[in-house]
Amino acid sequence: MSQEVKNAIQSGKTVLGIELGSTRIKAVLIGKDNETIASGSHDWENSYIDNMWTYSVEEIWKGIQDSYQKMARSVKQQYGISLKKIGAIGFSAMMHGYMVFGRDGELLVPFRTWRNNITEEASTALTELFNYNIPQRWSIAHLYQAILNQEDHLSDIHFQTTLAGYVHWKLTGQKVLGIGEASGVFPIDLEAKNYNQEMIQQFNSLIESRNLPWKLEELLPRVLVAGENAGVLTDEGAKLLDISGELEAGIPLCPPEGDAGTGMVATNSIAKRTGNVSAGTSAFAMVVLEKELSRVHPEIDLVTTPTGNLVAMAHSNNCSSDLNAWVSLFEEFSSVMGNKLDKNQLYGALFNQALQGDADGGGLLSYGYLSGEHMTHFEEGRPLFARSSDSNFNLANFMRVQLFTAFGAMKIGMDILLKEEGVKLDEILGHGGLFKTEGVGQSVLAAALNVPVSVMETAGEGGAWGIALLGSYMLNKEDNQSLEEFLNDKVFAGQVVKTLSPNPKDVKGFEQFMERYKKGLTIERAAVENL
């Protein structure tokens, strides 16, 4: 088998996927069978500078180069050969945000990430104008807010894109986005598989009096769907990606996609009546719809699959960050006690303890709001834990409530879809760090949504593997083979899936917790105003 893999590497029959997540950049190289050959990752964190969550351009390239080098080194160590040819490459990243560039290709203002809840005025105005929900994170909301703020750089803009689109452009020279990623920039016309032209004209009319030297359509990247060729790696791009200089130029790239789309692909949940929940720094649920929603819901984003089907997205800015901070505190305690525990062992023990708690978490309350939370209308966050004098305060309930609250804000959005809109779901696929401890995150999510939750063995591979699969689809698809068919036949046919059905007692307990969670938002508001 290793000789077969070695031949695939030497002959360039592999595909590379790189995803820039909130806390980690990961590179995954897959073979002809779409299984991982080698991977490498780079940890990074956003910075809060001048009231703005951001990453610097230097950090972006350092992280990409480091994750690529680690993956290439793994190839060399395992197979004794240098990585020079690759069949296809794909880039993915956290969606939305604001990256605008001048005539010379330089970034005009620091990258504003999805995490910035600073565009409420623009978001509200555009939602009303289009009669279509425009969340604060979306790129068009950031652009319009900059216009409302009369920022100095606006006249100099020649190009606006996302993080994935930026990386792709620098490596290929092509200003394009995959349709799933583009759907978080500006609303999509599902028939035309392009930006909604009527809304573009509405936007141009809205800003006409500002006398800006551009029209919106001149700034936006071209929209592509899964399977289309999105350009090739240039000589300059090859040197930028692989600083050792060994990687050859000319490699085709698939359309750059957002982490939402790659999560759908990595969990094989792009068919109607399926969905997936990604649980990491943020938590978001993606549900592929059978039909349009009955009305505009500010809590629900409408985006698309990488093939252009309508998806409802319930996104919360906060999920595991505060939970991770508590685990780090327990790790520090174990070290002080002279018995420093392995982090994975600690997560496993604490998560499993949560299953022993009272169904509703013993009357405890927690908010992991490290940043603002649009789902519950907070521009800033304050992580907090609260209990009443008669709560059942023990470790099991404490950990249970930390897991409950990780999905709390997202559940508010999912309740709109499942209870108000009557959306039907056969199952939800879970992926991301919260599902690594077997059965725990899965059972909590099943209780939150009252829907069977499945986790695949590959759930830990995540979006980097997902974008690699999109590269593989572009490279290896048969004539007229849909992405859904390709995933079912070539990728997930033998996949081991573990499914947990919701326990009625746990479902009831989660609902009780949510009543407490909604009532307690006034405590969170007081914390934001006074801490």
Automatic annotation (TrEMBL):
What protein name applies here? ATPase
Q: Is Transferase one of the keywords UniProt gives this record?
A: yes
Name the CDD domains on file: ASKHA_NBD_FGGY_BaXK-like
Q: Which organism is it from?
A: Gracilibacillus dipsosauri
Give the matching InterPro entries: ATPase_NBD, FGGY_C, FGGY_Carb_Kinase, FGGY_N
Record keyword Chloroplast present: no
The record's section on Gene3D superfamilies has: 3.30.420.40
GO BP terms in the entry: carbohydrate metabolic process
- Residues covered by the Carbohydrate kinase FGGY C-terminal domain: 276-474
